[in-house]
């Protein structure tokens, strides 16, 4: 479960979030839309415990995986090692599962590459593979599909939809089609004020 209550956040004189309350029940996927600068990423960072609100409370149950809008991969190691670094099994088990995740995200043949050798869209999918490898209870995703073409995006979304069954998910998007496909609850931020879409 993710529960944010009466969140306030300002940067200097600019109020970014104003009395924001958001609840995502266990096993539910929710999406958050809004214009650039509306406070979406700030709210996601607060939910992840990476930023502190000026007021309000945060409850995030279980293990949390975060996928940032800009992939944050370790450039000094391979794609495979970027995925296995969050896993707790044996080396052989981890590598087998990581390669299966990469294959499912249409990244076959990239395991030995370094992140700098990947396109932006490929790096974004490696970030998704690492999040899935972590086996979290709560997934927080910041525009995870923005670098993918429409055809590939649909296939990746279908795969993630199956992976997220029974998981709690909050993801940021600008696309109504993504909200409709992946989320049971849809929220919108405008000038720091949250509303739920019907």
Please, could you describe this protein's structure?
The mean pLDDT is 95. The chain has helices at 40-47, 79-84, 91-104, 120-133, 150-163, 176-182, and strands spanning 2-11, 14-24, 29-34, 55-60, 64-67, 138-142, 168-172, 185-190, 193-197. The strands form 2 sheets. Strands 5-6-7-3-8-9 form a 6-stranded mixed beta sheet, sandwiched between helices. Strands 2-1-4 form a 3-stranded antiparallel beta sheet, with helices on one face. The chain is globular. It is 32% helix and 29% strand. Strand 1 (2-11) and strand 2 (14-24) form a beta hairpin. The longest helix is centred in the middle third of the chain and has 14 residues, at 91-104. Helix 3 packs across helix 4 (120-133). It has a domain at 71-135. The chain is built from 6 helices and 9 strands. It is α/β, with parallel strands linked by helices.
Summarize the SSE layout with pairings.
Elements: E1 2-11, E2 14-24, E3 29-34, H1 40-47, E4 55-60, E5 64-67, H2 79-84, H3 91-104, H4 120-133, E6 138-142, H5 150-163, E7 168-172, H6 176-182, E8 185-190, E9 193-197
Parallel strand pairs: 3-7, 3-8, 5-6, 6-7
Antiparallel strand pairs: 1-2, 1-4, 8-9
């Amino acid at each position: 479960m993710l529960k944010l209550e009466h969140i306030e956040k300002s940067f200097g004189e600019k109020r970014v979030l104003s009395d924001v309350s958001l609840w995502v029940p266990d096993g539910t996927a929710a999406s958050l839309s809004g214009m650039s600068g509306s406070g979406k990423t700030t709210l996601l960072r607060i939910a992840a415990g990476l930023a502190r609100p000026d007021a309000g409370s945060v409850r995030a149950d279980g293990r949390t995986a975060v996928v940032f809008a800009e992939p944050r991969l370790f450039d000094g190691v391979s794609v495979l090692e970027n995925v296995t670094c969050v896993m707790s099994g044996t080396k052989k088990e981890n590598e087998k599962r990581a390669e299966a995740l990469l294959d499912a995200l249409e990244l076959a043949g990239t395991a030995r590459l370094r992140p700098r050798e990947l396109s932006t869209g490929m790096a974004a999918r490696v970030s998704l593979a690492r999040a899935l490898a972590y086996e979290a209870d709560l997934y927080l995703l910041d525009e995870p599909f923005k670098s993918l073409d429409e055809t590939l995006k649909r296939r990746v979304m279908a795969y993630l939809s199956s992976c997220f069954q029974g998981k709690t998910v909050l993801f940021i998007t600008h696309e109504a089609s993504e909200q409709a496909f992946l989320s049971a609850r849809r929220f919108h931020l405008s000038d720091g004020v949250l509303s739920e879409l019907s």
